């Protein structure tokens, strides 16, 4: 029955309930309807003792109106809701019906499940040819949070720590237990596969849960009971998490989500309509520390299980998006199911990172300037929320201590987390507003950038850049009015074609020193002696001419690899750092002004721009010949000292072809490379080539890049591969 919320008396009661419980209208309505069904239909348990349940023999029958009023009263006092007892289709044979009742009563004392208990009930049901007892038990346990929390527990370890005198006896006992017990492959040890600490080991025996599901999911009646039980379970779980802080008092509450997510049929149509959306909403209410625990746990589950979870949430998102029509008045951001499933998908996304190859070290020093304590004009005008810097780190990312950029190779490719259906219906102008202004009250998909394509994210970056351009234009107009000067709303560059580098360098250097915020203005280029209005074409030509000049090998700022067709910084360059700062500014301006450049850098350049140092693996892209040589050193099975005679002193040629020696370690010429220290040799060699030898050049280059992009959400939204696409498109 649908309750009539338009009746005056109901409206008054609901307002009172809303004020006292702080529940939203939809949640309150859903809970009251459950009380109503309990009063009119019952829970299905013939032995029910709840006097406010129609299944109880002491319950007074109520008509619909009286039941509706009573449901409101029960809601106000937070009365008990019965466990769910699924109904089983009765057979015409009275003996079969009697047998099913007897079997159900026989297992009525089962208050939680273990693998042994399920096997015992299943064996009994198979003997009788009737699964009603199993259906009743499964429905009752899986619809009750407390019962599910206690189910499928690992065996308690022996208390050897506290009983020193019985240590030998307990060790013997523990040894006996371990011979019988099958430990979960997913029950995490002290660390995740990549070495990230994994605290708060769950108490669920996941292998046992999987074996139980394998047995249960082949039985149609049990499958139906699991679906219905999840529908009854999740509203209570959601309320508990949102208003009672149950996880803080009992961390084992996480067991509910661990057990449910091991159901390999969650992606099936039976779950997609109601059960899975409700489950995702409940899961999204978990506190941050619980989501981090889930992510760490799932990272140890292996690729097949993580991929199944990813596909489950992706399928729900796609199913929901395709089943609805979205527009300016009905945004996908307001769809609770899509939002909740996206938040759940984020947990799997970080599990994929944690379970893959991760390098949480080798970080570049942060060159960004610290924020000033002085009030800006935006803050004085009360507009600081619109022009504030984008969030630098995701809360879950911070809790886990790992970032997408730290990931060398995830378990699941990043591309698989992109949902095309969402990208097709999202309104990026609205989403950008939620991202920058209403982040506390509205969900933005840019807070989960892994689900968005590069094209969609570039639209968000475009809005951010345009807002800043208009901001600087407005500030210029205000300053000019106060100071009585001619307003200059653009970043104007007047250059000569035959002196384009000198003119651009002098002008941009003056701007960066006197007023760096002018770099945030819209670029307007004018070639001296030529008529024309820059509507984008002139700027594009300017970028191309500057790049051709700077990447000219005769200048010697960069070296060129004929095999890879890529440029790299020349460690022996005679040019000053200002030239490298200029090329950094040019790259930043290209992103800021939405221009594609003909630039050919190895991926390590973009990784370094995003905050990671170059490592041995990066040599495969930037210096493939050297990488292959180093790989041979690592794989060599003979005697390195006798056959290769390498030391920790290396040589390379300068700009004029002269050999130069460099010690990777102090007195490196006296330290031979052996099997024991060859990994250190390779790491130090790569560190020198990619970091130390070009430190001054790259630092100046990055400084110029950050002059334009330091306040941009670029680092938050994009991975290095995507930054390359932004700057120069697909190779």
Give the topology, please.
Elements: H1 8-21, H2 25-40, H3 64-76, H4 94-106, H5 115-128, H6 132-142, H7 145-150, H8 167-180, H9 206-216, H10 220-244, H11 246-249, H12 255-261, H13 269-272, H14 275-283, H15 288-299, H16 303-322, H17 336-355, E1 357-358, H18 377-380, H19 384-387, H20 395-400, E2 407-409, H21 420-425, H22 428-436, H23 454-483, E3 490-495, H24 500-514, E4 522-527, H25 537-550, E5 558-561, E6 566-569, H26 577-592, H27 603-609, H28 619-622, H29 624-635, H30 640-643, E7 649-653, E8 659-663, H31 678-692, H32 695-709, H33 714-717, H34 720-728
Parallel strand pairs: 3-4
Antiparallel strand pairs: 1-2, 5-6, 7-8
Biased composition (Polar residues): 182-201
Region (Disordered): 159-202
Protein name: HECT-type E3 ubiquitin transferase
Question: Can you walk me through this structure?
Answer:
This protein has 731 residues and is mainly alpha-helical. The chain is 53% helix and 5% strand. It has 34 helices and eight strands. Strands 1-2 form a two-stranded antiparallel ribbon. The radius of gyration is 32 Å and the shape is flat. The relative contact order is 0.06. The model is unreliable at 1-23, 87-102, 157-190 and 368-380 (pLDDT under 50).
């Amino acid at each position: 029955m649908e309750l009539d919320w338009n009746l005056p008396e109901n409206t008054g009661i609901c307002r009172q309930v809303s004020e006292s419980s702080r529940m939203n209208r939809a949640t309150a309505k859903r809970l009251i309807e459950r009380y109503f069904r309990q009063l009119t239909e019952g829970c299905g348990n013939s032995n029910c003792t709840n006097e406010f349940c129609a299944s109880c023999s002491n319950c007074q029958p109520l008509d619909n109106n009286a039941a509706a009023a009573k449901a409101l009263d029960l809601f106000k006092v937070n009365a008990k809701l019965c466990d769910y007892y699924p109904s089983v289709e009765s057979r015409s044979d009275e003996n079969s019906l009697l047998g099913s009742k007897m079997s159900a009563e026989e297992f009525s004392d089962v208050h939680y499940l273990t693998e042994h208990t399920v096997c015992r009930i299943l064996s009994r049901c198979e003997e009788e040819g009737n699964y009603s007892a199993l259906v009743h038990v499964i429905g009752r346990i899986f619809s009750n949070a407390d019962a599910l929390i206690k189910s499928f527990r690992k065996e308690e370890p022996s208390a050897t720590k506290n009983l020193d005198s019985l240590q030998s006896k307990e060790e013997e006992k523990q040894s006996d237990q371990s011979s019988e017990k099958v430990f979960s492959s997913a029950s995490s040890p002290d660390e995740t596969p990549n070495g990230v600490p994994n605290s708060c080991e769950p108490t669920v025996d996941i292998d046992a849960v999987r074996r139980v599901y394998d047995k249960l999911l082949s039985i149609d009646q049990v499958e139906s009971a699991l679906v219905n039980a999840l529908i009854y379970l999740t509203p209570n779980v959601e309320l508990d998490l949102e208003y009672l802080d149950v996880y803080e008092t009992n961390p084992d509450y996480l067991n509910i989500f661990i057990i449910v997510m091991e159901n390999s049929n969650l992606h099936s149509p039976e779950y997609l309509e109601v059960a899975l959306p409700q489950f995702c909403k409940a899961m999204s209410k978990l506190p941050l520390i619980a989501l981090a625990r889930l992510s760490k746990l799932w990272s140890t589950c292996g690729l097949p299980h993580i991929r199944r979870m990813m596909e489950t949430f992706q399928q729900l998102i796609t199913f929901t998006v395709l089943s609805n029509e979205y527009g300016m008045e009905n945004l996908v951001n307001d769809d609770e199911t899509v939002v909740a499933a996206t938040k759940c998908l984020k947990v799997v996304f970080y599990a994929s990172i944690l379970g893959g190859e991760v390098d949480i070290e080798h970080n570049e020093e942060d060159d960004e300037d610290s924020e000033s304590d002085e009030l800006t004009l935006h803050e004085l005008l009360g507009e600081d929320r619109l022009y504030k810097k984008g969030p630098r780190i995701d809360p879950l990312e911070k809790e886990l201590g790992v970032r997408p950029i730290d990931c060398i190779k995830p378990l699941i490719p990043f591309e698989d987390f992109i949902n095309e259906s969402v990208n097709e219906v999202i309104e990026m102008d609205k989403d950008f507003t939620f991202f920058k202004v209403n982040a506390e009250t509205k969900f933005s998909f840019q807070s989960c950038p892994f689900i968005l394509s590069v094209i969609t994210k570039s639209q968000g970056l475009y809005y951010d850049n345009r807002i800043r351009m208009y901001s600087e234009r407005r500030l210029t107009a205000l300053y000019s009015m106060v100071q009585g000067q001619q307003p200059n709303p653009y970043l104007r560059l007047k250059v000569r074609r035959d002196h384009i580098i000198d003119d651009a360098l002098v002008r941009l250097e003056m701007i960066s020193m006197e007023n760096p915020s002018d770099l945030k203005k819209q670029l307007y280029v004018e070639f001296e002696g030529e008529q024309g209005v820059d509507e984008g074409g002139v700027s594009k030509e300017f970028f191309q001419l500057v790049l051709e000049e700077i990447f000219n090998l005769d200048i010697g700022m960069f070296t060129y690899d004929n095999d890879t067709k890529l440029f790299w910084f020349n460690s022996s360059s005679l040019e000053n750092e200002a030239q490298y700062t200029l090329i950094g500014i040019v790259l930043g301006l290209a992103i800021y002004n939405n221009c594609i450049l003909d630039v050919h850098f190895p991926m390590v350049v973009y990784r370094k721009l995003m905050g990671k140092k170059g490592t041995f693996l990066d040599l495969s892209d930037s210096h493939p010949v050297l990488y292959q040589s180093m790989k041979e050193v690592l794989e060599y099975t003979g005697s390195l000292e006798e056959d290769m005679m390498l030391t920790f002193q290396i040589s390379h040629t300068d700009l004029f072809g002269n050999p130069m020696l460099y010690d990777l370690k102090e007195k490196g010429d006296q330290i031979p490379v052996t099997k024991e220290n060859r990994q250190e040799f390779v790491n130090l060699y790569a560190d020198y080539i990619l970091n130390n030898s070009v430190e001054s050049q790259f630092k100046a280059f990055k400084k110029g890049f950050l002059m334009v992009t330091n306040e941009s959400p670029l680092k938050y939204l994009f991975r290095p591969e995507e930054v390359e696409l932004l700057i120069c498109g697909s190779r």
